[in-house]
Specification:
5 strands; binds calcium ion; alpha+beta; 1 helix; 176 residues
Length: 176
């Protein structure tokens, strides 16, 4: 008995098409997923870069503020012709209100930053400024000296939450 074979034109094509659709969907999903991950990375990197730039600008502002404040003072304690790198009597480690020469800032450390009249600056929680002062060689400003060279280097280090953000340096010569 011959059984009539029925051909369903289009059925195989339809099945192929459905299979293809599933493959297409899977590939599309994969592409979208990859693009999404890439986009999130770009956005994340962008936020990180913005945050780093903002931190650097803040750190430079804080560093330059105290650096210019120190450099405008006299080379050594007014009235003296020789002195070490140190604070004089009555000048306190944690309060620079009456600092009157550049090396009074040596080993000054504060967090959060304060103004010269010892008022905490608002909006700088977690920030820290540290200052050191050294005599340096005229010919080589990176070379420190144990004796008075007539040239002092002031270094300000600014950190945020313990992380170094910037370092600024300035120089004060023994001239009126
Ligand atoms: Ca002094
Ligand atoms: Ca001093």
């Amino acid at each position: 008995m011959h059984r009539a074979r029925t051909n369903w034109p289009g059925t195989a094509r339809k099945l192929n098409r459905q299979g293809l659709n599933m493959v297409e969907v899977a590939i599309s999903s994969l592409i979208v997923g990859v693009m999404l991950v890439a986009s999130l990375r770009v956005v994340g990197q962008s936020f990180l870069t913005q945050r780093m730039n903002a931190d650097l600008a803040t750190a430079q502002f804080l560093a330059e503020g105290i650096l210019s404040e120190a450099l405008q003072l006299s080379y050594m304690e007014p009235g003296l012709t020789t002195s070490g790198i140190a604070r004089e009597t009555g000048e306190l480690a944690a309060n620079r209100t009456n600092y009157d020469d550049v090396d009074d800032y040596h080993n000054y450390n504060e967090s959060p930053p304060k103004s010269k009249d010892n008022v905490v600056l608002t909006g700088f929680t977690g920030w820290q400024r540290t200052v050191t002062v050294h005599w340096v060689n005229h010919a080589n400003l990176t070379q420190t000296s144990g004796t008075d060279t007539g040239f002092k280097r002031v270094t300000v280090v600014v950190r945020r939450n313990g992380t170094l953000i910037t370092t600024a340096r300035g120089f004060r010569g023994n001239a009126p």
